[in-house]
Fold this protein.
Amino acid sequence: QITLTQQAESLWVSPGEKVSITCRASQSLLYTDGKHYLSWYQQRPGQTTKALIYHASIRTDGVPTRFIGSGSGTEFTLSIEDVQPEDIALYYCLQTLKKPWTFGGGTKLELK
Amino acid sequence: EVQLQESGPGLVKPSQSLSLTCSVTGYSITSNYWGWIRKFPGNKMEWMGYISYSGSTSYNPSLKSRISITRDTSKNQFFLQLNSVTTEDTATYYCARRDNPYYFDYWGQGVMVTVSS
C-alpha cells in the first residue's frame, strides 16, 4: 500500500505567519489522466472534517485563498498564508490513487 | 445541504460486533460513493471501505474478513458492521461522501466507539 508521511506531528505558528505542512508519498500519486490523487483535510474540535484541497492543488468550494496546495509526484505541501486563529487544527493528507486509500499521520497546527 | 450523521453504541465488548448507521440528508445515497473512516487514539486515520451508488462495496484488505457495509436506500442510510472487535478497534468512526474527483467532501461528526469488557 502507499504510505503517506507527514514529517511534522506538530507545528507552532503565530497569527499572520505562513506555515507549510508537507506530505510525502512512498510512490508517485500521478495518474495517467495527469492528475495527482492527493487531498488535504482540516479537523477542528466540535466541527465536521473539512476538505480543503483535492488533486493536490484545487481548493474546494468556500476554502479561503490563503490555503494553497502544491507539489507533484511524491512530495506535496499545504501552505497556509497569513494564519488565522481559526486555522488551528489537525491537518491530514489522503491518497486515493490506489486502494487501500491511505492517510498521512496528521500534523497539528498550534499557536506559539 | 448534504449532511451525514453517525449513530450507534458507544461501547462494545471484545469479540462482539460493532454496528453503526450513517443517516444522510440532502442527497441520495444512490449517487456517489459512501465511506467509513476511523481515527484511532493518537490520531492515526484509516479508510475502512465504501459502498457505491449501485450497492457495490470495496474494503480495506486489513479489515476484509471482518467488515461489511450495507445500505437501506428507502431510509437513505448506510451501515457499518465490524465483527470480532478487539480493543484495537477503539476509535472515532466517521462516515463520509466521496465525490467524483476522488476526495471526501462531506463528513459526519464522528462517533466514538470504545471496545472494552
